[in-house]
Amino acid sequence: MMKMVDGKLVPMTAEEISQMESDAAVPPAVPAMVTMRQARLALLGAGLLASVDTAINAMPEPQKSAARIEWDYSSAVQRHNGFVQQLGPALGLSESQIDDLFRVAVTL
After folding, report:
1. For residues 81 and 36, which has the higher predicted lDDT (pLDDT)?
2. Domain tally, the chain
3. What does the alpha-carbon distance between residue 100 and residue 84 come to, in Å, rounded to a whole number?
4. Which of 48, 75, 83, 86 has its CA 20 to 30 A from that of 93?
5. Inter-CA distances, 34 with 43, 50, 86, 90, 105, Å
């Protein structure tokens, strides 16, 4: 592989190539927060939006009422909010899958 140095193409060292490949393999950071619009669009894209009401309704009280308030009235969703921690597993999502949804949501 080549790189540009002072306007000239020069070969990259094995270390530079390895670092470039390593950097490319690192997923983007997980956003701490997305808007509720972004969250709903990401869930829609993942085919999970229709399952949210069912998951919330299956929660015991008072978690169910708190989750309903969060879902219906929040303008944003925080990644490490208790609501997300409850809703994710109720939708069958792993921590990694929740992170991926947040990564997608922030782009919408």
Report:
1. 36
2. 1
3. 13
4. 75
5. 12, 19, 17, 20, 7
Which pTM does this prediction carry? 0.75
The answer to the question of residue 37 being in a domain is: yes
Round to whole Å and give the CA distance between 78 and 81. Answer: 5
Provide the residue range defining the domain that includes 71: 33-105
Count of alpha carbons within 13 Å of 20, Cβ hemisphere only? 9
The encoded tokens of residue 61 equal 């009280």
| Token pair 């929660």 in the structure block, residue | 59
Q: Residue 18 domain-assigned?
A: no
| DSSP structural state of residue 93 | -
